[in-house]
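Q: I'm building a small set of examples for a reading group on sequence design. Run inverse folding on the following structure and report the sequence directly after it, with nothing in between.
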């Protein structure tokens, strides 16, 4: 379920609160292959299912940066900020990939709005997110993301 806020003041009121949990999305081999083509990273642990089945993970796995890139579409399921002119991905303070995402796995995001701070013309938010793997014992990614919203 998405939280919708209108304007920067309403966003500030969410600081310190949970944003919820996104829907599951499947990380297919086709998505992995498309990411490999886009980034020129065709390492066999990602793109060769037969060889990867004999490798350390028992199956092809998603690139860590593919998992990270899915943070944005998962996050947009959780928070919709309206009444602003511009939304900018400002960067990351921390990223870790504790567990691989095997092809065919489902992932989702659990997120918390850690802080909202004023910046010239807008606010910067810090989001603590955990990308979970369906049935996994460790998260696929732990992320501290920074975004800016301008009025």
């Amino acid at each position: 379920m998405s939280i919708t806020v209108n304007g920067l003041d309403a966003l500030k009121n969410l600081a310190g609160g949970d944003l919820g949990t996104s829907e599951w999305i499947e990380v297919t081999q086709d998505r992995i292959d498309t990411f490999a083509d886009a980034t020129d990273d065709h390492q066999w642990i990602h793109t060769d299912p037969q060889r990867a089945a004999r490798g350390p993970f028992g199956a092809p796995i998603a690139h860590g940066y593919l998992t990270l890139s899915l943070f944005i579409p998962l996050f947009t399921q959780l928070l919709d900020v309206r009444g602003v002119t511009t939304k900018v991905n400002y960067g990351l303070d921390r990223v870790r990939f504790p567990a691989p995402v095997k092809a065919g796995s489902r992932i989702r995001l659990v997120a918390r709005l850690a802080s909202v701070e004023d910046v010239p013309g807008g606010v910067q938010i810090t989001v603590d997110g955990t990308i979970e793997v369906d049935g996994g014992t460790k998260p696929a990614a732990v992320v501290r993301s920074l975004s800016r919203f301008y009025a």
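The chain has one domain: 3-150.
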